[in-house]
Each structure stands twice: as C-alpha cells, then as structure tokens.
Prior knowledge:
The chain is of the alpha/beta class. The protein folds into two domains: 3-86, 2-Layer Sandwich (Nucleotidyltransferase, domain 5); 96-245, Nucleotidyltransferase, domain 5 (2-Layer Sandwich), CATH 3.30.420. Helix content is 37%, strand content 23%. Strands 6-9-8-7-10-11 form a six-stranded mixed β-sheet. The protein has a five-stranded mixed β-sheet with strand order 3-2-1-4-5, with helices on both faces. Helix 1 (36-49) crosses helix 2 and helix 3 crosses helix 7. The protein is globular and about 55 Å long.
Amino acid sequence: MRLIAIDIGNSLINIGYFTDKELFVQKIETHPVKTPGEYFSIFRDFLSENSVEKSPSGVIISSVVSGYSEVIREAIKGVITGDPLILSHEIKTGLTFDISRPEELGTDRIANAVAAYELYKCPVAAVDCGTAITISVVGKDLNYIGGAIMPGIGLMNESLAKGTSKLSEVTLSLPESAIGTDTTQCIQSGLFYGTAGAIERLLYEIEKECGFELKVIVTGGYGDMISKFLRRGHSVRQHLTLEGLKILYMRNKDA
C-alpha cells in the first residue's frame, strides 16, 4: 500500500509517505498558508529526494485548521488521480462516539484513538503533546468516551512571556531538577514537571470515573520530552496520528 497521510495541525503539517515497507515523514510549518502550487512543489521535491518514485494509490487528510483541507486537496491533485479521503467522525472509524458533539471532535484525536486501540485492543488513552495537549480515551467496547484538553508547553511558555512584565520565553530544554535556581530553570521546571503532573492527574481522575485502567500512549511534537517526566507506565509512538490515518484509509478505501 502506497499512501500519503496528511495531518494538518496548529503548528505543523505532518505528511507521512507510506510505501510497501517504509514510512517517510515530512514536516512543514502550518503558517503562513501557501498556494496549492507551492505545496505541490514541496510534495514533489520530497518524494524525489527520498526516491519515492511510485505514485501513491491514495491520500487521507486530517485537519484541525480551518481552510487548509481545500488548499491541500487542490495541491495533491498533481500527485494522485482521484479525490483524497477527508477524515471526519462520519466515515467508517470502527469507533462508537459516546460524546455529545462528535462533529466538534478534532480529527487528529480520532486518528490517535483508532491507532491507540489498534495497538493494545483494550481501554486506552492517547496523549498528544503538541500545541495543545489532548487526551483521547477509548473504552472497553471500542467507544470513544471523551478526554481532556490543556495548553501545550509551547503555549504556556509564550503565555508567561506575554502575560508578565519580567518573564521571557525560555529554551524548551529538559530541566535537571524540579528546584530551579534561576528564573529560566524555574520556568523549565514548571513547564515539564508541571505538565507531566497535570497529565497524570487527569489520567487518574479519568480512570477513577470510568472504573477501569487505561493503557497510555504518548505522541506529538513534545511527546518524547514530556514522557521522560511521567511516572506511570506508558509507551511513546512518534507517528501515532499518521498510523491512525493509514488504518482509517484502509477501512474506507472501498466504501
């Protein structure tokens, strides 16, 4: 299966080129939006540089940014014939949505939930540490039961600088200690230890309300960094969203 999976996020567009044996990943900054021709050139050049010569047989697009799907859809016409699959809760996901407004659910969270359950086949929480941190929970009966959203460490870093007179943005490097001895170290401690603690508390409360334990998978641009501060057991899957998009495409390609 040769497939292009496109995950349009708030900060980055992650593009997964699935060949029969490998996954090539390209990252493009989301803003500012480019023209379809510019995106087509970026796709074409990346494929050429990585010797991905055979044309993909399909494309699936997930977007949490308004207006981008149509631009990317237009750009991808030069790469494949036919229309890409646009992810929504209405396609065949394999999940039952036990939430009040599934149409408001971020499509990246759908892909994360599908991939996470596929890996463990049991109740699971996908923790995506990106611009925002999202927790997406699938229960015992393949039912999407909800989750939580909080600011990511990048947003918190920016917010401290914008909302205070004396604090500045810091380099997002791992703190050596929870006790900071200068302002930069204090902010780094708060960002990483504080975020990890918030994630663990949310998971604890979710499990208590659900009445069962969850396997936990961490992903996202900051996932590997934050995972180092989590005390509870978990796994890290760098490309969980792209994996979920591939699964979803396979479930819908003949629909």
